[in-house]
Write a structure and sequence with these properties.
Layout (H helix, E strand, L loop, with lengths): L7 H15 L8 H14 L5 H10 L3 H12 L10 H15 L5 E5 L6 H16 L8 E7 L2 H9 L1 E2 L1 H4 L5 H7 E4 L2 E4 L1 H4 L2 E5 L12 E6 L8 H13 L1 E9 L12 E6 L2 E6 L2
Parallel strand pairs: 1-2, 1-7, 2-6, 7-8
Antiparallel strand pairs: 3-5, 4-5, 8-10, 9-10
Helix pairs in contact: 2-4, 5-6
Length: about 280
């Protein structure tokens, strides 16, 4: 297959297609990124060229091809306890606040990829319970969603290879929360049982997910246009419970897109609280 970067006209066509399909906005200089990520899809479906694959894709008749292309363009690097501070805030500040109400706690991990964020949240719950016995009497439910059915299926399995396990996970946590099975590390049942995973496009309706106390939507908004950021943030505000918390990536903020949130500083970092 020709490995030269995608032609300018085809790149523009693909940019429009990807934004319509999942909201991701590609910059003007991502030709090589698109070419490299779509190369394996082109080969898997035995297209003689990237151009022919693109022609079939934009016609919209091949659902499997569409899913593979979106997988290729949206599956990003992930790790356990990414950036550390959101999980410290969750464990030190948010869980103690929520545990006072004795009500079930619901958390949404948006764009959960292969499950590392959702399971890191669940591990944090277990660590909180261990250091605060009896304080958390309510159930904690974690809902992980992603546009890619492929990574959703992987998250449901809860099995990770050696390379995946070492990214952000200490040996102590690995040994505490995983079981070694042949060449894989399996998440322990008590961590898995709090989390469930389902396919969801962030451009679609969230109402069926129910209401949440906390939403983790980290390092996701950077891929969307300003208009879509506004829409996503305002719809997330609608499914947060009163006083709910939105946790974004370090370079992300709702400021300028919606007035639904206010910044709240904790010793470990910043989160956004739903306005009353």
């Amino acid at each position: 297959m020709d490995q030269s970067p995608i032609a300018a006209s085809e790149y523009d066509t693909f940019r429009r297609y990807l934004e319509d399909a999942c909201g991701i906005v590609l910059g003007e200089n991502k030709h090589y990124l698109v070419t490299s990520r779509l190369k394996r899809v082109t080969e898997e479906f035995s297209f003689p060229s990237l151009s022919q694959m693109m022609n079939t894709l934009v016609k919209g008749n091949d659902r499997q091809l569409r899913e593979k292309v979106i997988d290729a363009m949206t599956t990003n690097e992930t790790m356990w306890f990414r950036d550390v501070y959101p999980f410290e805030i969750f464990k030190k500040e948010l869980l103690p606040e929520l545990s006072k109400d004795k009500m079930p706690i619901r958390i949404w991990s948006a764009a959960s990829s292969t499950g590392q964020e959702a399971y890191s949240i669940s591990m944090s719950v277990s660590e909180f319970q261990q250091t605060n016995p009896g304080k958390l009497s309510s159930n904690v439910e974690i809902v992980g969603t992603d546009i890619s059915q492929t990574v959703v299926n992987q998250a449901k399995q809860g099995n990770y290879d050696e390379l995946s396990v070492i990214r952000g996970l200490s040996p102590e946590r690995r040994d505490k929360f995983f079981v070694k099975r042949e060449d894989k590390w399996a998440i322990r049942p008590e961590i898995m049982q709090r989390a469930r995973f389902t396919e969801l496009n962030l451009l679609n309706n969230y109402s069926l997910l129910g209401k949440f106390d906390i939403i983790f939507c980290r390092n996701v908004l950077i891929y969307f246009s300003s208009e879509m950021k506004k829409d996503i943030l305002e719809r997330m505000a609608q499914i947060l419970k009163p006083g709910g918390t939105l946790i974004l990536g370090g370079s992300e903020s709702p400021t300028g897109y919606t007035k639904a949130f206010r910044m709240h500083r904790y010793p470990d970092g910043v989160v956004y609280k739903l306005n009353d």
